[in-house]
Amino acid sequence: xxxxxxxxxxxxxxxxxxxxxxxxxxxxxxxxxxxxxxxxxxxxxxxxxxxxxxxxxxxxxxxxxxxxxxxxxxxxxxxxxxxxxxxxxxxxxxxxxxxxxxxxxxxxxxxxxxxxxxxxxxxxxxxxxxxxxxxxxxxxxxxxxxxxxxxxxxxxxxxx
Length: 160
Hints:
This protein is 53% helix and 13% strand. The protein has 160 residues and is α+β, with helices and mostly antiparallel strands.
């Protein structure tokens, strides 16, 4: 009886400690897992870390706005075009450069802002506002739902 009670209490303590896990640390671990998957070109792990439909909706708005800024009304990119924009290669390209080594979860947590425990904003290096990557808590995982392309890749003529 004592042994069973001890095991039950140990299990309860483990469950409670997991519930009390800091949202920023939790999010940073999932963000890092996504970045590692992108670096490795691991499509399956990458897909597990994104919400493809929300990413497509986010990119659709950005592409439409960029076209309007150029005086073009494209009506919006096709799903096939958006699907080609979302993948490990795109995130690797966006992270290329001298600081391209995958940061640790602790380093990610330093630039991560968690809002109401359901949204996390990863700022671009040197940026004080805006989210380079936006994540949403979905069940047990933080998934990528938004990519601010202008924050990740400099436009022609800009330095980054």
